[in-house]
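Teaching soon. Got one?

===
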Amino acid sequence: MKKNKIFILITGVFIISIFYFYNRTDIKNAEKAVLLTEKGNINLEIARTEAERKLGLMFRKELCQTCGMIFVFEEEDQKTFWMKNTYIPLDIIFLSKNMRINDIFENVSSTNEKTSDKDIPMVSSRAKYVIEINAKKAFELGLKKGDKLKIKWLGS
């Protein structure tokens, strides 16, 4: 009887493990992501290629309150973001490879095509990932420098 219970327990753990790893989407294959916080979730578009990262949220007139973008880089290094042709004021969050917040730049001003290059806001910090969300959303979600964020990577 005891051997049957142990066998059932081991089998159950094995099945759950297979289900977990089979259904887990890694960063490389993810099509979407979700920033999970205690005060709400943010659905993130993924900017993975150089072209996607360069375009980012430029030229958008609006961004829903539960939407944002995560920029994924190959290496953790100094990253610089500037707001050229970005019509929406944003919070820009720089994350380490371990998803820890290195820096948060809140309410970075929007620009338009008439803004001269010298007047375009620019922010820079060390990061492997960078998240852009609506201005003041980081404060609303209670995000602080040093926090470790939870990102769920989703397939199709």
Notes: The domain at 28-154 is CATH 2.60.120.1140 (Jelly Rolls). DSSP finds three helices and seven strands in the chain. The CA atoms of residues 3 and 9 lie 10 Å apart.
